[in-house]
Design a protein that fits this description.
Four Helix Bundle (Hemerythrin (Met), subunit A); 113 residues; single chain; 81% helix; mainly alpha
Length: 113
């Protein structure tokens, strides 16, 4: 869930087109990012899990969604520590949280168009 107060304080001074572009990039890359994380888990590719989760974590930080950020960080650490136990469960939680973020961003985008 987006911390809308912090989001507004951060982006109110930006051109609306920039905010829309940031949101659009997340929307466009969402499916590929989630698929890459799932593939890394399935293949026990710890380096890929670390890098893909780290990248998602960085993107999500733009939207002040602590839940999604925290779950991406947990998967990043699983990759870094080369531990697969629990990764699938965390991924399912991440997928749900990131999916909610995606829908929230689609709604939020309308305010900036």
């Amino acid at each position: 869930m987006i911390d809308r107060e912090t989001f507004s304080m951060t982006y109110d001074n930006f051109d609306k087109e920039v905010v829309v572009e940031i949101i659009d990039i997340f929307i466009a890359e969402y499916a590929d990012r989630m698929a890459a994380i799932k593939k890394a888990i399935d293949e026990r590719n710890f380096d890929g899990l670390n890098k893909c989760s780290h990248s998602l974590k960085g993107v999500v930080a733009n939207f002040y969604d602590d839940t999604t950020h925290h779950l991406a960080r947990q998967l990043e650490m699983k990759g870094k520590e080369e531990v697969i136990d629990g990764a699938e469960e965390i991924f399912l939680d991440l997928k749900a949280a990131a999916g909610s973020l995606l829908e929230e961003l689609k709604d939020l985008r309308v305010q900036y168009v």
